[in-house]
Design goal:
With 190 residues, the chain is mainly α. Helix content is 75%, strand content 0%. It is rod-shaped, with a radius of gyration of 28 Å.
Length: 190
C-alpha cells in the first residue's frame, strides 16, 4: 500500500467536528503499522529500550507509543522527532526524517496547541530523567559513605592491634570491628 492509497482511505473516512478523521482504519492501519510502526519497533529493539523507557524519556505515553507501533494512531512530526532523539540520539534528524517519510500523508499536522503540549511533556520527561539521575547519584553517595564507614572501622581495628600492650578484650573488640567492616562490604557487593 502506498501513502496515496492511505490518503484515499483517510479521505473516505468519517470526519470529526474539527474536520480531521477519527483513528486510522483498515488499509491505513496496515500502512502505518508496516511503515512507521515497524521502524519504531526496530529502532527501540536496536537501542535495547522498553516501551516504558522510551515513553519516559520522550514524553509520550506508553499507550500512544504502542498505538503508533500498531498503526492505530497517526503520528505528528514533532512526536516523531522526540522519539528519534531517544531512539537514535546521534542520528536524530535523519531518523526523524525517515519516520516522517514512512508516515507519508497519514502524518498529522503539528498545531500550535500540539506543539505546546508536546514541549511541556518533553520538559516533564527531561525533569523526571534528571531526578532519576540524582537518585542514582544519591545511591552512589550512600555506597561511598558505607565504604568509608567500613574503612574507618578497619582503621580503628588496625590501630588497636598495633598497640604494644593491647589487652585480650581490646583484641576481641578489634576483631568485632573487622567483622562489622566485612559485613558492610559484603552488603555492598551483593
Amino acid at each position: 500500500m502506498t501513502s496515496r492509497d492511505a490518503v484515499r482511505v483517510r479521505a473516505t473516512a468519517p470526519t470529526g467536528p474539527d474536520g480531521w478523521p477519527g483513528p486510522p482504519t483498515g488499509a491505513e492501519v496496515e500502512f502505518l503499522r508496516d511503515g512507521v510502526g515497524a521502524e519504531l519497533r526496530r529502532l527501540r529493539a536496536a537501542a535495547g529500550l522498553s516501551t516504558r523507557m522510551v515513553a519516559a524519556r520522550s514524553g509520550v505515553s506508553r499507550r500512544y507509543l504502542r498505538d503508533l507501533e500498531d498503526g492505530r494512531r497517526r503520528p505528528r512530526p514533532l512526536t516523531l522527532t522526540h522519539l528519534a532523539e531517544v531512539l537514535a540520539p546521534a542520528e536524530a534528524d535523519r531518523v526523524a526524517g525517515e519516520l516522517l517519510a514512512l508516515a507519508g500523508d497519514s502524518a498529522r499536522v503539528d498545531t500550535e496547541r500540539s506543539i505546546r503540549r508536546r514541549r511541556r511533556a518533553r520538559r516533564r520527561a527531561r525533569r523526571a530523567e534528571r531526578i532519576r539521575a540524582q537518585r542514582l547519584t544519591a545511591a552512589q553517595r550512600r555506597e561511598l559513605e558505607a565504604r568509608l564507614a567500613a574503612q574507618a572501622l578497619t582503621d580503628q581495628a588496625v590501630r588497636i592491634m598495633n598497640r604494644r600492650r593491647a589487652t585480650l578484650a581490646e583484641m576481641e573488640r578489634a576483631g568485632q570491628l573487622l567483622d562489622q567492616a566485612d559485613e558492610i562490604t559484603r552488603g555492598l557487593d551483593r
